[in-house]
Design a protein that fits this description.
Length: about 90
């Protein structure tokens, strides 16, 4: 579709610039949206941790520890999973 537009254009360099500027604008918009999403998710995470710790410290502590257990267990089974996936 973009090729036919470029071939039909009277001034191809102007069309090329238009496509390039539009692509840059889309990339810039996507970058800003992603950065704002990261900030929002970080803010939500910090608020959830603070709310959990103020509501029930012991339950929050158990939740955090059990959430970290897969990080400790994964390296133990990594070699086994890799070998089985190659078979």
């Amino acid at each position: 579709m973009s090729e036919s537009i470029l071939l039909k254009a009277k001034n191809p360099s102007k069309s090329d610039r238009s496509f390039l500027v539009n692509d840059l604008k889309q990339l810039e918009t996507a970058r800003i949206d992603t950065q704002l999403s990261i900030v929002y998710q970080l803010f939500t995470f910090i608020n959830a941790i603070i709310a959990g710790l103020t509501t029930s410290f012991s339950l929050s502590f158990v939740f955090i520890i059990t959430s970290l257990v897969p990080l400790a267990i994964q390296p133990l089974f990594n070699k086994t999973i890799t070998n089985r996936s190659k078979q």
